[in-house]
Amino acid sequence: MKGSLPGHLLVRHGYDPSSSNNWSVFLMSDVSPAVMSADGNTNGFSLGVNLTGFDDTLRLWRVKGNTLSVVVNCAVNWQTEIGTVKPVKIVVERDKEGHWKIKILRLDNSLIRMSSGYDPELLNLPGLGYITGTPPHVIACCGSMI
Fold first, then answer.
1. Do the Cβ atoms of 109 and 89 come closer than 8 Å?
2. How many CA atoms lie within 13 A of 130 on its CB side?
3. CA spacing 20 to 30 A to 60: which of 5, 44, 79, 110?
4. pLDDT value at position 144?
5. What torsion, rounded to 10 degrees, do the Cα atoms 10, 34, 71, 109 define?
6. What's the pLDDT at 29?
7. pLDDT band, residue 137 (cuts 50/70/90)
8. Whole-model pTM?
9. Where in the sequence is the domain holding 124, given as residue range(s)?
10. What is the CATH number of the domain that holds 127?
């Protein structure tokens, strides 16, 4: 089904977030991970913390170069509700009309929060992209976007 995106990720960030300590995972991108950079050459959808500001809240962003638009505010404070020790499972769904649903679960599958949003733009994006952050080596992520 064109435009649909079901999948999940296991994510752990080893440092408390701040305005200078942020991270994101591109769920869909128009460029391959090998050519992604922070200079705004990427368009897609990215799930992350503190891409702008420093409230430590997980959000799904539409990224167009250097322009970020919030698609879903997950209303989860990564520092106080998730922490740095254990990963969480993030389930992401997008239907072909552009409705997004994001569930954040503990490893025992107990629900932390479920949030939703809408963005109909497709951007002709192939799939799971790249993990980025500051510092970049502190992300632990594995999963599948099918």
1. yes
2. 17
3. 110
4. 37
5. -10
6. 80
7. very low
8. 0.81
9. 5-145
10. 2.60.120
